[in-house]
Structure formats: structure tokens, C-alpha cells
Amino acid sequence: MAETKAKLPWIEKYRPKSLKDMAIPSAKSSGHKVNLAEELTNFVRNFFIEIKKINEINKEIRNHNRNATEKDQKEEIRLSFEKSAILLEGKPGIGKTSIVYALANDLNMDVIETNASDTRTRDALERKLNETTKSRGIMDFAKESRQKLILIDEVDGIYGTKDRGAVPTILNLIETTQFPIILCSNEFKQGLQSLYQKIKKVEVQPLSKLEAIKIASRVLKNEKISGISSGEIEAIVEKNGGDLRAVINDLQAIAKGSDFPDVVLLNNLHRDSIEEIFSLIRELFQDVKTLKEARNLTDRSDVDYNFLYKWVSENLPSFMHVNSDLANAWENLSLADEIFGRIRKNMYWGLLPYFYDLFAGGVTLSKKESDSRKGFVRIKNPQYFSSTTLNSAEKSLLEKINRKYNIPQDELMQDFLPFLQVLSSSSRKHQKIISDWFELDTKEKKMLKSD
Length: 451
Fold this sequence. Notes:
By secondary structure, the chain is α/β, with parallel strands linked by helices. 55% of the residues lie in helices and 7% in strands.
């Protein structure tokens, strides 16, 4: 695989290693402004002071209970919920996770992270965190008892009947933990009231537009990128509505010659970049016959790997028309997406070659010679949706979908809506069923067409 593709993404390269390196977001708790860095630092330090006292008391209680009669038994005490855990609530990409890792680095701690939306059931959460929160492993003592900081991300991703028992499990973990727990949430959820009532919640605000522009400009300067104007930087910041992670990802995509991750800004790209993508897509679908040829094609391309995946996914139905081939291709794309999710979550960049093989080579090996379309096929731009650029019809459609299915907005826009578009475009019958189910008007129906 080409060396340039194995380089660390900018969002990881520029993740702050210390709180002093961060632009700390403003924050509020119970309506009052708080210094987020100080709030979290004090929370962690006070936790270990308090838990040490409680453990010493409980040790005496256990010694007493060994020789005491049943009626003289004493109950062990626990640290209060508000001293054991804290919840950070705010939009995605504004620095909640980054500040936790920076804090851990400053305090010489290990972060043990899980995503609540991935492990939503009681059993899954217990398997993931139970032993971690209650005990130290042997390697901790080998490393002079390096302490742990527990991070439970996307708590608001818990929803639906499948997740019953998940919140009580989190509360039980908080009640019995030997390590401080920081939870992160993208938005307020009514179903998490029992959690809100017991632990402290801090509302984290996006960085100011000016601060985000400064950070974006500094990243470009460090990368020695000079082809992006100040107006384009400002447009990217405004488009992403405070999501600094998305801003940095957009800058890297543009610096690599890829499109802005939003069709609104498509025309700002240099014509050569668009033509390269179009040429690559046509060659992949119409000329490439083997896995080796697919690898060679992606190796010689400088197009951002995740962005190229989106173009392949968007244009798959235009170039392949045999149902069995499409099914195999979609399956390979699905596996590629799953692998990319693991890469991003766990930083397993060694898996990147498999990601390429599945989305590029997987498409190639799924094609039938009899279905090869050598004539002109219009290539479509990937469809992106950003909450800051939605028009009234788009917002109305998302609201109607959300009434039926309580799905987080980013997941709804990125995954569920594209699925509905593919399903609706497959037949008029499917389109009618979907339209009737969501009670869509004419403008909303048009949005479900993939063309």
C-alpha cells in the first residue's frame, strides 16, 4: 500500500496531548460558567482522595464483620455518584473526548474507553467495563500502579427496547467503580433522566468561530498548505457549525485534492481533482478486472481513502445492474465500512489495506462480464447532509423520520437516509410504501430519489 495512505490522519496528528495545548471550550454547570479544565482536573484528583479514604474505612469494616455476629455486621460505604462520575454534554467534534485524553496524559493515567451506543445492553456493558472499574490488572502494578480514567462515550446513543437495563448498569458501575468515570453525550435525552439526576452534568459549548479559524489556519501552516484561502477556511468552519473535528477532516481532504465533504462547496475544487475522481471511478467499474489491478489503481491515486469509498458507494447502482452482483458488492462495502470504523475507533491503521481491498477489490470481483457497461454512465457526487446546511424540506423529512425512529441525527443523515434513498429508488412500490409510512409531501418524496 502506498506510504502516503498509511500516514496518521490530521485529526489524530493534531489531537492535543496536554490541556495546556488545547483551546478549552467554554462550559456551564447548573447555569453557571465553569472552567472545564479545572473542573475535570479537580474531579479526578478529588475522586482518588475520597476513594482512598473509603477503601480504608471499608477495610476496617470487613475486618470487623469477620468476627462480628450477624446483627452487629456493618454495611460498607460507597462514594457518592456525583463524586464518582461526571457527564459532558455537547455537539459532536467540539473536543469532549480530546480533553479527556489530554487530561489523562497530564495526570499520567490510562484511558479505558467504550462507546455506549456500541455496547448498549446490560450484559455487553458489564462485560466491557465491570472488571475494569473494579480492579487493577497485573500490568498496572508493573507500571507503578498507573491509574485509569474510564470514558463512556455517546451515552445518548442508548435508545429503544434493546437498551433496557443499560442505564441501571451504568449507574451500578458508577456506584462500585475504583476509578473516576467521565461520560460524554452529544445531546439531551429524556430517557437518561435517572442518570442526570444522580451525577453532575457539564454543558460544553462549541469553540467560537474565530478560535476555530485560528486552529484551522495553524494546522494548514504546519502542513505547509497554501492553496486554501481565508474565505474557504471560514466557509468550512461555518458549514461544520462548531465541529472542529469535521473542519480538520475537511481541510485534509481538500489538501489531498479531494472534494469538500459537502456538495454545497463542490465547485470550489480545482477541475483536475474532479476529473481525477471521475476517471478513477470509471476505470474501477469499467476496466479493472482483478484484485491486483484494483490495488494498483488505489495505490497510484492521491484521493482521500474515506472520500473515495463514498464515491464508490454512491455510484455502485449506476454501474452494476445484476442483483446478485450488487448484493455481493454491497456486502463487501459493508465489511469495508465496519473495518474503517474499527480503524477510527481503535487507531488500527494497519487494517487500512484490507479496507481498500474490500471496497475497491470487492467491487471489482463482484462484477459480471456480461453486465460490463462500456458506454457513458453519469457519475454522481456523494450525497452529504450537514445539520447547518439543511433546507426546510430536508429538515421536515428528518423530523418525520425521527418521529417513527428515535435515531441520533448524525446517524440518521449519514446512514439511515441514504439507505431509504436506495430502497425507494429500487421500485415505485417501495417508494410508495416509504412515502405513506412517513407521510411525505411532494418535496420530501423527491429527496428520496438517488438520482
